[in-house]
Write a structure and sequence with these properties.
20% strand; single chain; 7 strands; 33% helix
Length: 150
């Protein structure tokens, strides 16, 4: 079995930035995105995912390639690209509505790109709501005194 490489987040974000899609990097081997749910944004997201050669990993999916009409049909799409795996989340547990998440987002630089990511408090709420051991460990790390700066 080949060793899994970390995602090429700069390549993924470059395609998403070109389509003006909001994203969030999770501390795993994939990239978690919570897109604006507007039809125009979902179309841009689908176009960016097609450019990235995204393939649907969801069990039972009859379509290996994603399109804008499919995106609202599931709360989680798990995708694979040659650049790394991507999860598209809609109605993520613990997440505020998209406009609130976007208004509270932090902006980071990644090469030439400017990327909005979920703010610390929103990230903690989502990780607590998931309840997975890895997310709870992330919460513990995020709430240590040296991380209490945003």
């Amino acid at each position: 079995m080949a060793e899994q490489q970390p995602p090429d987040v700069e390549r993924i974000f470059a395609a998403l930035d070109a389509a003006q899609v909001h994203g969030h990097v999770r501390m795993t081997n994939d990239l978690d995105l919570i897109p604006s749910p507007t039809p125009a944004n979902l179309k841009r997201l689908a176009d960016a995912l097609q450019e990235l050669q995204a393939r649907v990993l969801n069990a039972g999916s009859e379509h290996p390639q994603i399109d804008a009409r499919m995106l609202p049909r599931a709360t989680l799409w798990q995708l694979s690209t040659p650049h790394g795996d991507i999860d598209i989340l809609r109605d993520a547990p613990g997440a505020a509505p998209f406009p609130q998440l976007r208004n509270r987002a932090l902006t980071i630089a990644l090469g030439e790109l400017t990327i909005p990511i979920a703010g610390r408090d929103d990230l903690i709420k989502m990780k607590n709501a998931s309840g997975r051991p890895t997310d709870l460990a992330d919460v513990a790390a995020l709430t240590e005194p040296e991380h209490n700066r945003e």
